[in-house]
Amino acid sequence: MIKVMEKVERWGIYDWTGNGHDDGNPFVDYEIVGTFKGEHEEKTVKGFYDGDGRYVVRFMPSYTGTYTYKIYGNFTDQTYEGTFEVTEPSEGNHGPVSVANTYHFQYADKTPYYPIGTTCYVWELQSDELIEQTYKSLAESGFNKIRFCIFPKHYDYNLREPRSYPYVGTPVDSSILTPDNFLEYTGKTEGNNWDFTKFNPEHFRHIERCIKRLMEMGIEADIIVFHPYDRWGFSQMTRDQDTLYIRYLISRLAAFRNVWWAMANEYDLFEHKNAADWDYIGTLFMKEDPYNHLRSIHNCREFYDHSKNWITHCSIQRQDLYKGAEFTTEWRKKYQKPVVLDEIAYEGNIQFGWGNITGEEMVRRMWEGAIRGGYPGHGETYLSKDNILWWSHGGKLHGESWKRVKFLLEILKETPGLGLKCDTSRMEEWDAVIGIPEDDKLAEETGYQLFYYSFMRPSFRQFRFKDDKKYRVEVIDTWNMTITDAGVHSGCFKIDLPGRQYMAIRLRKA
Question: Which long-range contacts (CB under 8 A, 24 or more apart) does 1-8 make?
């Protein structure tokens, strides 16, 4: 049985499905390949075995018009050819995100993209009811990126089994796990019985459905490929096993326009991988992903060398107990890439220092990072009676910082051009963080300046400009989410403030 599509929208997903050999181990014994050709592009992509004798080739067209395809491989004795039409993208479909202007991001249609994401490590491996609640919370919050894992996670508050596993086999008996003894099983492989050459297609089908739902919501899926919080043995696979897994991921997920690849969460906690292994993994994604999706690697204690050519942007977890977002300016200068602050600590009340800051401090760090030209990430770890914490399971948001995400995002979207940078030349403003457009010409033309006062609480600020330009001045309360017009001013002028923390002043040419 052959299933073909007659049309698909630009940056949509074209699936070709057909039957083939199901003897032996189809995941390694057979291959299926598709060549797709339009007026402006030609790509050859590898397909995958989807179980029950079914093979799929998945393709994302980058242009409109008529495409031809050819499907071949040893999965069958036949070759299949055909055509389909690529239509204009639907509303909200801007294509995949890529790096733009060195430090920033934009969609394929040149629409600027300002990532303000959140972390929910295994939200998609929970119950259907909890997953639906996560979608609802995401829609209410305004997050436009979410980090999550393919593999299940073993850690505090994460001792239950997931809804499914990525491989055929059986896990260690988890009934013996308690909050007191779970560390004894971290990284252990005894008791697991996996065939790392046979994938569980339903595990991946379910994740695909989740990624597609996110895509329809306009949310980027930052896929964590590996992580060290493991009792199943997935963090200890061999290079050959890693390679098979990565190629399967690419063939199944790369055609989704909203996919990003994060090689690891906290790469430096892996006992069985070194820098050469991570370079191999990152380079494999760079070479074999036909769509060149964004790629990163995330640290615990030690930063990876983000200058490596396979890394498209910095994924940062702060190293200092107090500071993180404050170093954004330095990291931009050092790595010459976008800085995404995926973990600057979590709003919550758990026992760990990384998971018990206030909502006010979370928002302060997010604004600090954004004004400095970086892209902050949110996290929440509030204790609950059912041990469902947003940071890992999704569900409901209980804090205060998430309510302020949409407001920050709207401020960023009003940036002239593409993104902010920190103006470090204003010595008279040493006690403020000043964001100006990345493009110096636009900064001059628009006069756009965003002064952030963080945890300080001035009752007024004085400005002294030597030219005669007139500026429209606005007072922004970043916590209460208000913007107050303070009039048009020029030369030397004074702006009154309420003497509260978390205030900002925005100037634009009148």
Answer: 2/80, 4/82, 4/84, 5/84, 6/84, 6/85, 7/84, 7/85, 7/86, 7/87, 8/61, 8/84, 8/85, 8/86, 8/87
pTM over 0.85: yes
How far CA 32 is from CA of 72, 80, 148, 359, 378, in Å, comes to 6, 11, 28, 50, 40
CA distance 386 to 415: 42
Residue 76, C-beta contacts closer than 8 angstroms, at least 6 positions apart: 18, 19, 20, 21, 55
- Report the helix count and the strand count for the chain, using DSSP H and E: 10, 31
Q: First vs last Cα of the chain: how many Å apart?
A: 65
**Nearest 5°: phi and psi at 193?**
-140, 80
DSSP string, 145-175: EEEEESS---BTTB-SPPS--SEEEEPPPGG
Type of residue numbered 143: F
Kindly report the number of other CB atoms within 10 A of residue 9's CB atom: 16
pLDDT in tens, 296-338: 999 999 999 999 999 999 999 999 888 899 999 999 999 999 9
Lateral strand order in the sheet of 449-452: 420-422, 433-437, 449-452, 503-509, 470-477, 482-490
Question: Residue 333: CB partners within 8 Å, gap ≥ 6?
Answer: none
Residue 255's nearest CA partner among 297, 211, 206 is 211
What distance in Å separates the CA atoms of residue 146 and residue 131, rounded to the nearest whole number? 13
Distance CA 379, CA 38 (A): 42
CB 45 within 8 A of CB 251: yes
CA distance 116 to 427: 30
Lookup: tokens for 48: 């995958």
Residues in the chain: 510
Whether the CB-CB separation of 509 and 470 falls below 8 Å is answered with yes
Question: In the numeric block, which tokens belong to residue 147?
Answer: 């980090």
pLDDT digits (tens, 9 = 90+) for 168-206: 999 876 666 677 776 666 666 677 899 999 999 999 999
- Cα 115 to chain centroid distance, Å, stands at 8
Of all residues in the chain, what percent are helix, strand and coil, respectively (each to 5)? 25, 30, 45
